[in-house]
Amino acid sequence: MSVNLRIPGPTPCPDDVLQAMSRQMINHRGPEFAEIVGRITDGLKTLFETKNDVLTLTSAGTGAMESAVVNTLSPGDRALVVSIGVFGNRFADICRTYGVNVDTLDFEQGTAADPERVAEALKADATYKAVLVTHNETSTGVTNDLGAIAKAIRGVRPQILVLVDAISSLGSLPLPVDAWDLDVVLTGSQKGWMVPPGMAMVSVSKRAWEAIAATKSPRYYFDYTKAKSFLEKGQTPWTPAVSVYFAMDVALRTLLAEGLPRIHARHARIGQMTRDGVKALGLKLLADERVASNTVTAVRVPDGVDGAALNKLMRTEYNTVLAGGQGPLAGKIFRIGHLGLVTEADIRACLDALRLALPRVGFAPVAA
Ligand SMILES: *Cc1c(COP(=O)(O)O)cnc(C)c1O
To answer: pTM score > 0.85 for this model?
Structure first.
């Protein structure tokens, strides 16, 4: 029996995607690679629902976050970071690293950002050049209402840059980049895309390109202008993770055949099934259900239970790998990933394993 890898990335990959990874190398400056990168770029535009440029970078997701900052913001620029957890805080840290003058608008862990408060923060200070926001906060299992946030932002500052970390949502949850008028939207291959780690994908709007031309932050590897000019020749500026491009090419074929409506419905169904199942075991969710994520579920570790011991037992005796809590939530929650390649049977197996493991780490559910 294979391991039930239920973490929010890296996610399991289909067999044909794994087989694509074992292909012989090709010339990354030759016609075959140009065809592959062209097809990947077109497929991504469809799934991002955008006519903007889409760039692929050989990088972890965090590299794409850094790229968004260094390409659009200069030292001394003012930016507002809307944070509902660890990954929102990471966006703010990256900004500070590059001398961007950031204010953070923080919301309590397990809650979503309030669009009205984002609008108020923008009304209170007209100097912000950008708003940075996480679509799906993987550390707390919360999905922000990004459509409402974007609308609130545009209502106050129609031309401000909106930079979005969509690493654990794009390709799984609805995120129409052009309809919501988002400037830089980034994601990573190892989340809902069913591809091994190694590729980050970024959409860049016309408004963002205008900012990029004037940005003074130092950048070399992650220079969007170079990436765009090489993409026009069917290349990347530096040697790409060729095997990951092979894999993405195959995975996109599957995702495009399934189509966005069915992909979104599948994640919604499995997210609901996970939350219902967890509650039926007598456990409590971290997030309010109205904002709970359909790609990752954060579950409170019950009183008297050692979260690390639970995850260890699940891994060693029930073949199920769960994620722990990050930052301030370490030991307080565990997380179940359900994005990309995931079926009802995977979630049922995970819930069955939890039912058996929990009493062994001292959990006595209170009768409903
Ligand atoms: C996974 C994740 C990241 C970090 O991606 P890496 O590839 O580990 O750098 C950032 N933001 C969100 C929302 C994520 O889910």
So the answer is: yes
